[in-house]
Amino acid sequence: MLKPGDVVAIHEGVKYWHGATKDSWFSHIAISKGTSEWCEEVDDATYSRLSD
């Protein structure tokens, strides 16, 4: 789990979750080179199975 002030480097080609858990919120600033590839949307059933 990320905490305020954490810095994360995601390397090209790595698929990652870009959001909060079901019982929290998430805000961030992203700096990237090139373009982003948006993956499939997470449906409500999958999201509700997430653990904190």
Question: Could you give a quick summary of the protein structure above?
Answer:
It is built from one helix and no strands. It is mostly loops and 52 residues long.
Description:
The chain has 52 residues and is low in regular secondary structure. The protein is built from 1 helix and no strands. The chain has one helix spanning 44-48. It is globular and about 35 Å long. The termini are close together. The model has no long low-confidence stretch (mean pLDDT 82).
Strand content: under 5%
What is the tally of helical segments? Answer: 1
Compute the average pLDDT. 82
Distance between the termini: 8 Å
What portion of residues is helical?
under 10%
Largest sheet: none
Low-confidence stretches: none
InterPro entries: RmlC-like_jellyroll, RmlC_Cupin_sf
